[in-house]
């Protein structure tokens, strides 16, 4: 690089007191207003964290080594940085801001690492699990808009653990999908057969597992059933239903549980009902009414919440394409 | 894990609004007060960063992928996370807090990735560079305490680039150290021969290099000479001297330059002086007076600055072994 092309505004007499504004000065040449805004906020918080804690060089080095180990644990099927984000509550926060829901609509929650794109399509009423995968459960659902109109042709992706707490992808030598499936809603919603999900541990043999251990946290998620509901014109709903009374209901390792998503499981008592759905009396029964919002409802809500949040923070940022950038 | 052993205090009805206190609740079982304090501050700042920027899922995923790439770029001789910390100004901040200096003492700066432990020992007056490494430079130094007393037997580690801007470790097939050496101060300080250092780029072929490009920053460091001064009872001084007038003097890619560490280089004008030191008239001359502080001076200063900084931040933390922990 030709030094004469250095156009960076000069730092002001650098000390560790004024390092933060000096980093902002050097980053100020970034032509992308949003990236500039992200970096300014990131650097300010990073430095404030170090100042507030008087972070020592030994602690800094331990953090460098931890982050390096997290990166090096990642491969094609393992994403340890997402796990870190999950266990620090960042994932559910980002998801909540990106997909806010008005009262009455079904809340979203974290996607998690076990969704695949190869699930089979099923007809209404079929079982998404092969035989012997756990205690049989019937799931009866409706899908509506916020005005209460039934939504047909919603593509519903469902996935869950078997009764050993494992997703199909966690079995070595997996050749085909199991305990997952894609259905399409009709005017009465959709229903399918599956198994009762159970609690399971997140992968704990890496640096994030070590961190949880140091923090005296467990690595379990309460039992749940994942859903992804998609229809043109509607905000995609990524969510999960949690079984009430799970021992990890109030301490989910990745903070995915929300009160509005906790549901009771009944058992089928009526022989006629069992007969109608091809189940047995005593089998588990889960009923749920999904409510989707339109893309326009989502956009309006996101804009309003962004404005309210920035006002509450006393931020002078302005919104550009719905996202804050510095007001300069 | 036996669910009955879950002793974690329950989260309060999780929403993305209250995720931060909920993460604190789950982390509150950590028995190490300092780690608990670090995590509380880290999670608060991480969440505030996401809230302030309304971080989107796409941006979050880009950050996950960036951090993964940073981790995977690291190996035995490359530490991309330290480079990231350096380029965000964190390293110099942490170093400044860990090794504060009173007025009159020589300031410290970042160690950088090029220090080695295999440098040869040299007698006063020898050259630490093999022939042909650059423009000859004589370095004349004193080392004193804050009261002005000469300090003998200080171990002084020196390292620098050659005139191509490379450290010896950056040459493939390096068999022995060059442009680095260890000296011991006498009652008149120490002096040695070397070459005039030149500006050089930090490694820019990884994710951090890509980041700097996106920010329209250059990857250069101004010319400097590294010093590490060590003596029992004294706070180890890790510092560098920067050559005044360097084109990157006010835009160091890693924020290591401090005004008090910028020095002029003269040339040797007096033939008698050239003769005395075995140099030529016209060769470069660098003179510097190092002032070290004792471990006790360092500890007292660090404690005082920590107290002042916490008071300024309005923090209610108390100091334990000189470091803040939560007051509970």
Automatic annotation (TrEMBL), chains A, B:
Superkingdom, taxonomy of origin: Eukaryota
Entry-linked Pfam families: Dioxygenase_C (PF00775), Dioxygenase_N (PF04444)
InterPro entries: 1_2-HQD/HQD, Catechol_dOase_N, Intradiol_dOase_C, Intradiol_dOase_core, Intradiol_RC_Dioxygenase
GO molecular function: catechol 1,2-dioxygenase activity; ferric iron binding
Domain called Intradiol ring-cleavage dioxygenases: residue spans: 133-292
SUPFAM superfamilies the UniProt entry points to: Aromatic compound dioxygenase (SSF49482)
Catechol dioxygenase N-terminal domain span: 32-105
Biological processes annotated in GO: catechol-containing compound metabolic process
Keyword DNA repair set for record: no
Keywords: Dioxygenase, Iron, Metal-binding, Oxidoreductase
Gene3D superfamilies: Aromatic compound dioxygenase
Cofactor requirements of the protein: Fe(3+)
Family the entry assigns: Belongs to the intradiol ring-cleavage dioxygenase family.
Protein name in the entry: Uncharacterized protein
